[in-house]
Write a structure and sequence with these properties.
5 helices; single chain; alpha/beta; Elongation Factor Tu (Ef-tu), domain 3; binds FE2/S2 (inorganic) cluster; 2 domains; binds flavin-adenine dinucleotide; Rossmann fold; FAD; 7-stranded mixed beta sheet
C-alpha cells in the first residue's frame, strides 16, 4: 500500500499570477519520491472529497523537503493556495511508475520537452539527470513572458530553449517551433510532459526515429491507485487499457494512443 503521511508546509511561494510552489517537510525517508512519480494531495477543510494529483517537482534530502508546483484552476487548488506556513498537508504516495533513468550515464544526451503545468516533473528530472552527468537540453513553451516559471532549474541542469506564443520571451512560437529546428545528433532519450497538443507534437516529431520517447500523461483522477478506473488510456495499438495512475503516468510514445 502507498504511504499516507502528514507533511508540514514550510514555504508557500507565488511564482506567477496563478502558479504556486509549496515546500513540504517530513522527518521520514524520501526514497520513494522519485522523478516522474506523483502524490494525491488531500484538500484541506473537507469541501473537496477527492484528493488531487500533483507531480513531485523537487526533493531535497538534506532538508527533508519535497516541492509541489501547481496552477490554481479550480476549488481544490484554490484551497491549497490559501494554506500558510505551519499547516499540515496530507499526501498519499508517492504513486505511479516514474521515469526510468537508472541506466543513464555521464555524457548521455537527453531532450526534455514541456509546457505549462507539465513542467514540475521535468524540473525534478532535469535536476536528477544533470547530477548524473547527462547533457540535458530542455525545450519549454509558455503563452507569454508573465507565465514563465521554473526555467532556472533547466538552465542549471543544461541548456534551455524557450518559446512564447506572443514572442515576449525567447523564440516566437511554441515548442513545435523549437522541435522543428532540433537536430537529432546523438540524443539517447526524449521525455515530454504538458498539454495534449504538446504530447501529440512530440509523438509525431519522433515517430519515424529510433530514439525512445517517454510521455508523462495527465487525466482527472479519483483514487490514484488503480481502483476507480477513472484514468484509463489505450496502449499497444488499442489492444490494452491501462491506468495512467498505476502503470503510468509515464508511457512510451511508441505504444500509447493519445
Ligand atoms: C499525474 C498528474 C500530475 C499532475 N501534476 C500537476 C502539477 O505538478 N501541477 C499542476 O498544476 N497540475 C498537475 N496536475 C493537474 C492537477 O491535478 C489538476 O489541475 C487539479 O487536480 C485541479 O484540481 P482543482 O480542484 O483545482 O480543479 P477542478 O475543480 O477539479 O477542475 C478545474 C478545471 O480544471 C480541469 N482539470 C482538472 N484536472 C485536470 C487534469 N488532470 N487535466 C486536465 N484538466 C483538468 C477541469 O476539467 C476543470 O475545467 C497533475 C495531474 C496528474 C494526473
Ligand atoms: S485514478 Fe482511479 S484508477 Fe486511476
Amino acid at each position: 500500500m502507498p504511504s499516507v503521511r502528514n507533511f508540514s508546509l514550510v514555504k508557500q511561494e507565488r511564482l506567477t499570477e496563478d502558479v504556486f510552489q509549496m515546500e513540504l517537510k517530513t522527518t521520514e525517508s524520501l526514497s520513494e519520491y522519485q522523478p516522474g512519480r506523483f502524490v494525491m494531495v488531500e484538500i484541506p477543510n473537507g469541501l473537496q472529497q477527492l484528493r488531487r494529483p500533483l507531480a513531485i517537482a523537487a526533493v531535497d534530502l538534506l532538508t527533508g523537503c519535497i516541492s509541489l508546483i501547481y496552477r490554481v484552476v479550480g476549488q481544490g487548488t484554490e484551497q491549497l493556495a490559501k494554506l500558510v506556513v505551519g499547516a499540515k498537508v496530507n499526501l498519499l504516495g508517492a504513486l505511479g511508475n516514474g521515469f526510468n533513468i537508472q541506466n543513464f550515464q555521464v555524457g548521455d544526451q537527453v531532450l526534455l520537452v514541456g509546457g505549462g503545468t507539465g513542467l514540475p516533473p521535468l524540473m525534478y528530472l532535469a535536476q536528477t539527470l544533470g547530477q548524473q552527468g547527462c547533457l540535458v537540453t530542455t525545450m519549454v513553451g509558455f503563452r507569454t513572458k508573465a507565465q514563465i516559471f521554473g526555467t532556472q532549474v533547466f538552465e542549471q541542469a543544461g541548456q534551455l530553449q524557450l518559446a512564447t506564443d506572443d514572442g515576449s520571451a525567447g523564440k516566437l512560437g511554441n515548442v513545435g517551433t523549437l522541435l522543428n529546428a532540433w537536430k537529432m545528433n546523438n540524443c539517447r532519450h526524449v521525455f515530454a510532459c504538458g498539454p495534449l497538443g504538446l504530447l501529440k507534437a512530440v509523438q509525431q516529431r519522433f515517430a519515424s526515429q529510433s530514439v525512445p520517447v517517454d510521455l508523462s500523461l495527465e487525466s482527472r483522477m479519483g483514487c490514484g491507485m488503480g481502483v476507480c478506473a477513472g484514468c484509463m488510456v489505450s496502449v499497444n495499438g488499442g489492444t490494452l487499457n491501462q491506468h495512467i495512475c498505476q502503470e503510468g503516468p509515464i508511457f512510451s510514445a511508441a505504444e500509447v494512443q493519445l
